[in-house]
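Working notes for the structural subgroup meeting. M.R. asked for a predicted model of this chain before we commit to crystallization trials. I am recording the input and output together here so anyone reviewing the notebook later can reproduce the run.

Input as submitted:
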Amino acid sequence: MSGTTATPSVLPSGLDLGSLHVATPVVLAPMAGITNAAYRRLCAEQGAGLYVCEMITSRGLVERDETTQKMLVFDELETVRSVQLYGTDPVYVGKATEILCAEYGVAHIDLNFGCPVPKVTRKGGGGALPWKRGLLAEILEEAVGAATPYGVPVTMKTRKGLDDDHLTYLDAGRIAQEAGCAAIALHGRTVIQAYSGAADWDAIARLVDHVDIPVLGNGDIWEAADAVRMVEQTGAAGVVVGRGCLGRPWLFRDLAAAFAAPSSVEPVETRTLPNLGEVRDVMRRHAELLCQHMGEERGCKEFRKHVSWYLKGFAAGGTLRRSLALVDTLASLEVLLAELDPDEPFPVLELGTPRGRQGSPRARVALPDGWLDDTDGSGLHLHEEASETTGG
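Returned structure, recorded in token form:
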């Protein structure tokens, strides 16, 4: 069953990132421990878009770190390989970019300058780095320079700034454009907000007016209608979807339908309301893909974290939920899934509500000593771990 929303008068029919054309202007945000090859395949089966591998570190890739290399796994049907790269050293980022292009055949590279996690920002990485405009420019120029011979577009993702008194997104957009980036994605929150509060879509609109390259909007897209509204309100060229698809990979089906709608006053079906039987089928498919890529033991363990998201709002009992969250084989999963009531309707009260991490604003942003003393940072050498997990 589906609901309907009015079709907007104008929507982008696709997204062009350099020579790469994306049929639907929707990007799956890289999420640590979530957007592995199995989940990207699952989402891609629902609708067209660009599906980004969970973030890897440039130093880890250059030094052939085993954990990093294990994360760089692609599904056999993943013809457009997209990777998000984290780095604070221009040389490492440049070398890692070349490796991704030459050895892994990627079609798109995104650079993470939006992570709010304290262990990252206190080293000057993630959402803290754009404060150093000179260093940001050096990193972007190295990445674009390394990717250009391969025809691979480079984009960046950032936040509004450290806090409301230390905004960086307009300068970051200008620097990205000057460095040759194909697009910039803006999460409409500051680092200090993390995932709390509401995303500032007005900031996305200001960035659209400020630069000539495509701007992708990120933040508070829980339904396809939210994506449509964001694009209409901001003029963004597309959207980046993260937490909204947790336990709901079919959101990409809704997004594809919304952006494929003709420009008319006729309504278009853009909201999937699967019953519990249909959700159960998606859960089974997800677990099978995880086991196919990781082996049954690890695949089942990875699946456990998704159970609460899939069953959010449904009446499945606590005992069954706990058992599903401890599943260790596909056979035991099949037995447990059979206990779900296939006819239970989708809990409509969950539509449009936040999913995943939220929390409260941070008391302060963890930064290196003296970080705010200047806004340049050219030639600055920051410590970068070989293996790191973050999100933006």
